[in-house]
UniProtKB/TrEMBL annotation, chain A:
Its main location: nucleus. Its EC number is 2.1.1.220. One of its GO terms (biological process) is tRNA methylation. This is tRNA (adenine(58)-N(1))-methyltransferase. InterPro entries: SAM-dependent_MTases_sf, TRM61_C, tRNA_MeTrfase_Gcd14. One of its GO terms (molecular function) is tRNA (adenine(58)-N1)-methyltransferase activity. One of its GO terms (cellular component) is tRNA (m1A) methyltransferase complex. It is found in: Nucleus. PANTHER family: TRNA (ADENINE(58)-N(1))-METHYLTRANSFERASE, TRNA (ADENINE(58)-N(1))-METHYLTRANSFERASE CATALYTIC SUBUNIT TRMT61A. SUPFAM superfamilies: S-adenosyl-L-methionine-dependent methyltransferases. Residues 69-304 form the tRNA (adenine(58)-N(1))-methyltransferase catalytic subunit TRM61 C-terminal domain. It comes from Cucurbita maxima.
Automatic annotation (TrEMBL), chain B:
Heterotetramer. Residues 280-290 have a biased composition (Basic and acidic residues). The gene is LOC111496211. This is tRNA (adenine(58)-N(1))-methyltransferase non-catalytic subunit TRM6. PANTHER family: TRANSLATION INITIATION FACTOR EIF3-RELATED, TRNA (ADENINE(58)-N(1))-METHYLTRANSFERASE NON-CATALYTIC SUBUNIT TRM6. Belongs to the TRM6/GCD10 family. InterPro entries: TRM6. One of its GO terms (biological process) is tRNA methylation. It comes from Cucurbita maxima (Pumpkin).
Amino acid sequence: MLPTDDLKKISFTRSIRDGDLVIVYERHDVMKAVKVCESSTFQNRFGMFKHSDWIGKPFGSKVLSNKGGFVYLLAPTPELWTLVLSHRTQILYIADISFVIMFLEIVPGCLILESGTGSGSLTTSLARAVAPTGHVYTFDFHEQRAASAREDFEKTGLTSLVTVGVRDVQGQGFPEEFVGLADSVFLDLPQPWLAIPSAERMLKQDGVLCSFSPCIEQVQRSAETLRSKFTDIRTFEVLLRTYEVREGKTESSQVEGGGSVELPPCKKRVRSKEANDTNGDSSTVMVRPCSEARGHTGYLTFARLRCLVVYVERLLKDKPT
Amino acid sequence: MSSSNLPSESPRNPRVAWEGCSVLLDINDGDRLVFARLSPASTLKIGNKSYSLKPLIGRPFGSLFQIESGDNGQHLACVTPSREEETEEMKEEQVVKDELRDNRALVDNNKAQSLSSEDIDAMRSQGATGDEIVEALIANSATFEKKTVFSQEKYRLKKQKKYAPRVLLRRPFTRSICEAYFKKFPARIGFLRVDALSLLLSFANVTSNSDVLVFDMVGGLITGAVAERLGGKGSVCNAYLGSNPNPMEIVRMFNFDDEICARIMRSPLTDLASSQVSNGEHEVNIKAQDEASEPVNMDEGPPPSTDQSSGLNSESIVSPLTKVLKCAKAGDKAPPEVVKSWKENGFTSLIIAAPQSDAWGLVKDLLPLVANSAPFAIYHQYLQPLATCMHKLQLEKMAISLQISEPWLREYQVLPSRTHPFMQMNAFGGYILSGTKICDVAHQ
């Protein structure tokens, strides 16, 4: 998924190969991740697609089924992956993910600790942010879930950047080997305040912690725990409003005599360019918010480890000699 | 899980401020944000006095400084906050008492404080610290004891900000740089809020080893943010129209090393689009542009309306040495071999943030330069140009997965029994059109 070497990079010359992971795009809300295998086929409501027809085509190609239906084949990205991954838990979406990575100040080379792993939606984006020299250590107390996440990272080619551990971080804390080494810590746990003392020990001085919680009571308790050792404690809610664009034809008022009448907008793709040019009616592109939206995902609480003399000493001790 | 593959530390510790590095100074919990370049000669102006920034050199980021009186007069000194923890616990106990207190007896007659400003000046000249003045003010306030513990805390904080200002040493990152500009000069960055910027970087799949084409007319904020995510591998090309490169003075706020700076390039769109690579005739313009955009000072604009009482928002910093200790050169004209490689392979993604330009006008020229299946994201502070652009992209069958989104961001005050959203919020963070480029039909 990531351009860790030039062979994996998308380019004008890079074409789909046997064994590649592709995102089969039907519609913006109907997509599927498929591993290309020469002898295999892909079936959907438009018919049957032979993988062998896909090999050698560039990413971004439109491919046809035996019945003349079509899909697009896209190169996978963490954003597309978030839309196609199998939900084993409630997952984080792009608005929260982007904000978390920005606020945790993650750059290539960082060491990140995460718990729980869940379905690995955020983990995939964390891996992209720390690549190529950093690492994400992610923990989930659910053995099956951790195993499925591992399989997913295998599929998306992130195993060199992500290590999945089975561990009850609320009960046991993060492993001792990471004390003072984490640039940032992300918690998505039912009782995050139980894991905060451990997270505090793992962080480098001035390191940032984020806790994601759907309920304000969880935030309240976490913030109380954070106050003793952390500073810059800030809680946010971030949501996305999406818009739909349509082309609407506005008729001139000559026929009716009254004010101008707006016809109900018709779906954008239906109206062709020539239609606009030939007849005299003007058509306008109109935009409005989509009626349905995610109203709540969770609260994001960020905190920075307070810089004390102790941490400076710890740092000096850890310095390579 | 072994620790053998832990990333190794670079020779210079990036978590400790060094001489010549760019820092963000947060004065009084975000009331004022100032960028500075540390040198023994650089100073910070607080109130009507200048303080040397020398004590900040070699201190870890996250350190807190206060003004202290010493042998050589007043100077900035590192403090270890310890009092906060005590007050926190005290607060819990007093909440119960609080229910009996309210403001019914409070009369606004300006007589509550018995210390005059002359008294305070006298204390100062005798060498009293800011904290001592705050304590004296509290002791001489007739109404302080009658306040609830929360309004006592508010009172203390207000006085502390005025008489014992605190300076927090911060590492400049995309996040803090964007927040600082958004707070002071939102127009310079096209009103690009930090959550919108974070979305642009995600939508455009920016990661190490990618080649990102940007059209950055927001002062270099996008270019810098992309370079930060590249970490010295891959490239970011800031394309421009005509012969004048887009200014990118914000790139110098980041502490980029030479390796990262070398990945930041500029190129005229004509070079990227043409089949031939021109010679270095534009380099003169790039240099001229950089000189013109100097110096960068977050404090040169009008003071924010929120903080009139403290009188701290006047002039500030940027010492003569700032220019000498400039960071390594970023934004050179892309060499012909690099342009050639971009043309052969295509860019891996595209970000446009050009508040003054027509989105479609740029996209139709820039999108053909990116590889097939490459994601792109276009920022605009107005909706209609993006709607038109999205419609055109659909008609021309240039892209799929098209979506216009608008982020919404709300911050919360979280306090025991007093949690609620902030009374003031920013209501607009801009619009983003995102999508994925598909193969040209004629190409198949």
